[in-house]
């Protein structure tokens, strides 16, 4: 599976391709062939490319649970559960922004109990409360979603409700992290990096919305590498997003901050990409220096996710007219 990940040379070919058709031809020669064929082959409509990429990720996620050692399978199920909840959160956020199913369909990871069919059905509900209630029916994530529903009920704030779902999920994942630390501490650190990313991105969004830390502190996840108290200190000591991000020393976000400063639209996507790059680099080291183990399987999961994420940036960037230079500054792909 690792050998089928796109290497640096091929990713640069994708980046430098003259058009979308050339990109598809490159991907068609790799493990994406089956997924591209399912949505129309090389004649695939551009708006369906995201569907093919999501399908590819879904197949890989399903396989990871199957190949994990029996004694550690519960950990992998807990970790890949984030894709179940990703779909649920995507639907909730879309409804909060008054968007229909069609606007998010291509971003859904067609996997697990909240696959594309389930999400389409959930979004028939007229309210977010109704959606959450339907998502909770016979769900292993009922308690997690109930926490989000309670927060939403209090203030009808989608941002805080999603943050609460994340907090509850990662609280549940805490026992998994403890188990990973016994088996492979480096694998636990990668999962904790993802928690840092959730906390930092949430704090950045809150800073832009003008929240005080006491209004968002309860939604912070406590099991990351960066403590909540550290984030609070940086948050309270900054006047805006730029000064907040400049204080984060655990991750190199200088390039992302420079891109943000020079971007008139002030897109927060740059920070998500910067943090994903950090996770990618750590996962690469873990996968390349591990014997076949749970840690190696976990590292592959993150690398596969970021491979799809990177391809989406390149393809959608091309469709929306971004220059090669703009995209290149945001992408790190060093799988050799």
What is the string of SSEs from the N terminus onward? HHHHHHHHHHHHHHHHHH
Please report the distance between the alpha carbons of the first and last residues: 14 Å
Q: How many helix segments? A: 18
Roughly what is the average pLDDT, rounded to an integer?
Answer: 85
The percent of residues in helical segments reads 55-70%
Round the Cα radius of gyration to an integer and report it.
20 Å
- Biggest sheet, in brief? none
Shape: globular
Oligomeric state of this protein: single chain
Spans of at least 5 consecutive residues with low confidence:
none
The assigned structural class equals mainly alpha
The count of DSSP E runs of length 2 or more, i.e. the number of strands, is 0
The fraction of residues assigned to DSSP E strands is under 5%
Structural write-up:
There is one protein chain. It contains 18 helices and no strands. The protein is mainly alpha-helical. Helix 1 packs antiparallel against helix 2, helix 5 runs antiparallel to helix 10 and helix 11 packs antiparallel against helix 16. The longest helix has 26 residues. The two termini are about 15 Å apart. About 40% of the residues are buried. The mean pLDDT is about 85.
In short:
By secondary structure, the chain is mostly helical. The chain is built from 18 helices and no strands. Helix 5 (73-96) packs antiparallel against helix 8 (128-136).
């Amino acid at each position: 599976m690792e050998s089928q990940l796109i290497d640096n040379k091929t990713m640069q070919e994708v980046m430098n391709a003259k058009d979308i058709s050339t990109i598809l031809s490159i991907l068609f020669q790799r493990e994406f062939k089956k997924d591209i064929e399912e949505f129309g082959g090389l004649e695939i409509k551009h708006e369906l490319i995201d569907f093919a990429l999501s399908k590819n990720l879904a197949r890989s996620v399903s396989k990871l649970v199957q190949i994990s050692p029996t004694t550690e399978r519960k950990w992998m199920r807990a970790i890949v559960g984030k894709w179940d909840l990703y779909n649920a959160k995507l639907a909730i956020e879309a409804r909060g922004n008054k968007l229909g199913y069609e606007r998010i369909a291509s971003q859904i990871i067609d996997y697990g109990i909240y696959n594309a069919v389930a999400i389409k059905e959930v979004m028939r509900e007229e309210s977010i409360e109704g959606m959450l209630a339907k998502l909770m029916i016979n769900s292993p994530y009922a308690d997690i979603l109930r926490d989000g529903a309670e927060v939403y009920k209090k203030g009808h704030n989608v941002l805080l409700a999603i943050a609460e779902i994340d907090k509850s999920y990662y609280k549940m994942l805490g026992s998994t992290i403890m188990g990973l630390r016994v088996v492979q501490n480096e694998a636990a650190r990668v999962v904790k990096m993802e928690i840092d990313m959730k906390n930092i991105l949430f704090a950045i969004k809150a800073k832009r919305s003008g929240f005080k830390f006491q209004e968002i502190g309860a939604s912070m996840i406590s099991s990351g590498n960066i403590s909540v108290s550290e984030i609070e200190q940086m948050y309270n000591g900054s006047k805006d997003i730029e000064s907040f991000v400049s204080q984060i020393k655990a991750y190199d976000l200088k390039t992302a901050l420079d891109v943000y400063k020079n971007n008139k639209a002030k897109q927060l996507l740059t920070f998500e990409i910067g943090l994903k790059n950090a996770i990618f680099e750590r996962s690469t080291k873990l996968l390349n220096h591990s014997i076949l183990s749970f840690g190696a399987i976990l590292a592959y999961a993150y690398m596969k996710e970021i491979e799809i994420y990177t391809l989406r940036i390149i393809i959608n960037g091309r469709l929306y007219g971004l220059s090669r230079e703009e995209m290149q500054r945001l992408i790190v792909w060093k799988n050799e």
